[in-house]
Specification:
By secondary structure, this protein is α+β, with helices and mostly antiparallel strands. It is built from 9 helices and 4 strands. α1 runs antiparallel to α4.
């Protein structure tokens, strides 16, 4: 086998794609007890929760339901997923109408600071979604309004308990791990790799615990 190239980033190392270099949207890579101690919400490692409860304007429940149905349409899915990937800090999000069509909940899990999370959404098509959805809530000033953060804080209810299944992994690290796994699986399927494993010249490398662990994880 050829001499090893300079060390590539390890599994889980934070990564910024070239196209992200000009963007201000970034994910934190450093785990901490609280990603935003000055804001409401709980954190577990690098992950934080954001839960907002609002009062639906009288008679607006059906209109809100129609907006949510439109946003869930597959035709809009590609734009939204592209924006979410551009933001690069959102793990998941959900919208719920409850209490006999009188109240609305938006809940999500994200990486990094609370303020950057709100700012980043306002810069993408997701901000348009926020305006459409929350326009049916009492008092919502608009995602671009200077007072929108104060409005969210006033309607945010911190979770009593918040637990992440992967508290030390940011969205960017999860993206990268998935890309590395796919790339490695492709390498495993090549005859060249199999030949390298069977080559006596590589026996010492193949026998190392680290290499054996890599093969075990790939076959799991």
């Amino acid at each position: 086998m050829r001499a090893m190239a300079p060390r590539a980033p390890a599994f889980g190392d934070p990564r910024t794609d070239p196209w992200q270099g000009s963007l201000t949207m970034t994910a934190t890579a450093q785990p901490s007890r609280s990603a935003h101690p000055e804001r409401p919400g709980r954190s577990d490692g690098v992950c934080s929760e954001f839960t907002v409860f609002t009062e639906i304007k009288p008679g607006h429940a059906d209109a809100l339901r129609e907006v949510l149905a439109t946003l869930a349409d597959a035709a809009d899915d590609e734009r939204v997923h592209a924006a979410v990937r551009q933001i690069g800090t959102l793990h998941d999000a959900r919208h719920v109408i409850f209490d006999n069509d009188t109240r609305f909940m938006f809940a999500s899990v994200f990486d990094g600071s609370w303020d950057a999370y709100i700012d980043d959404f306002a810069k993408t098509v997701v901000g348009e979604r926020f305006d459409k959805v929350f326009s049916h809530s009492e008092g919502f000033p608009g995602i671009s309004d200077p007072g929108v953060k104060d409005w969210f804080v006033a309607h945010q209810a911190p979770a009593g308990v918040f637990v992440s299944a992967y508290p030390d992994l940011t969205v960017q690290q999860i993206y990268k791990d998935h890309r590395v796994e796919e790339a490695f699986e492709e390498v495993l399927d090549t005859p060249e790799f199999r030949a390298a494993l069977e080559n006596p010249a590589n026996a010492e490398l193949v026998a190392t615990p680290a290499f054996q662990k890599l093969l075990e994880e790939a076959s799991a």
